[in-house]
Amino acid sequence: MRSIAIIGSTGSIGRQALDVVRANPQRFRVAALAAGSNVERLAQQANEFRPDLVCIGGATLTADLRSLLAYGPPEIVSGSEGLRRVAVGCGADVLLAASDGMAALHGVVEALASGKHVALANKELLVAAGHLLCPLARSAGATLVPVDSEHSAIFQCLQGEDPACVERVVITASGGPFYDLTGADLEWVTPKQALRHPVWSMGPKNSLDSATLMNKGLEVIEASYLFGLPPGRVEAVIHRQSLVHGLVFFCDGSVKAQLASPDMRLPIGYALAYPERVPEAVAEEETRRALGLAGAAASLTFEPVDATRFPAVSLACAALAKGPPYPAVLSAANEEAGRAFLRGQIRFTDICRLVERALASYAGPGRTLEDILAADRFGRASVREAIDAAVRH
Ligand SMILES: NC(=O)c1ccc[n+]([C@@H]2O[C@H](COP(=O)([O-])OP(=O)(O)OC[C@H]3O[C@@H](n4cnc5c(N)ncnc54)[C@H](OP(=O)(O)O)[C@@H]3O)[C@@H](O)[C@H]2O)c1
To answer: Ligand 1, closest atom to CA 14?
Structure first.
């Protein structure tokens, strides 16, 4: 029995992780749950899984949370100290970092430093601080297993392989809802259209990032850090069927690929149970069997990313090549611009323009946690200033 602590349990990844736990009660137990502000859903989850520790973002929400808990009493904590307790102070075997943004940074650093098994979904953390987190995991002997389907695919392909024999890795992109649109049409797409992903079911931030292809740009950066490969040896390609999630090209000309139905519960289950596999990670028999070679996987297509219509991957590669903290500027500017698009303040194509502007105007080197947090603030402020200036004109 493995005990799991989840930061971000109320989000898309967190809820799917609890689906995996629910389907495998003999294998997993929930030790701690943490969320930002969704008190009702957190209480509902806690009442079902009965963890000893429950954490909510703000101290002002703890009384509401306590009033909704129907077992107990569990310990209720809040804020960054609460997240630290969830990460390293609750005795869980595995920490699943599934919040968005940078809130879990210090908790994840401590978990890795103490040699824990960390299943990492939190993309923004890895993009901004992968140059610190990955070497820390290696030096502390921690087990860092990626949750993102593409990185999980590459991680799985690398099992038993000598990293020195890896020539390059390729991650795939579905292309999102707009891949067939012209550049002119992209100017006018709406937030509602952008949130309708054709294949994956995700939260709003990830759905929008898939529509701009920034998701793939962020994933190129993540892959570079996770697998210790320089920018030129990580590539993204469009693969509309979303069945091949990642490929590894080896020095002898062999290529390994990982295929699976596009269901996040598979890589989540893998990351929680690693090095074992979970036969019932997905309860539905049809999802487990969907990959018949005569069926959906009969014709697999791959094409290069169109960098003119979708500049996000090139922007991310440029930020990666410049080194830390540019990926943090990119990620933060993208998050802020994405929010502005969803509020109707800017056009879809402005998102990458604003990210490019933030990257071009940043001039501070720096690799420390403080430098990264400063770069994150700069990326957000740069986007807000540009939007405010446009409104004033
Ligand atoms: N969704 C996917 O398919 C997918 C795939 C690969 C990677 N990822 C990455 O995984 C992460 C989560 O994605 P998601 O789609 O699950 O996002 P989401 O649905 O927006 O959920 C975010 C979660 O983080 C929690 N949170 C926010 N601030 C917090 C804080 N200060 N303390 C504790 N929890 C906090 C939220 O709590 P509240 O609900 O209370 O606000 C929520 O539970 C992101 O980094 C994303 O890029 C997602």
So the answer is: 16
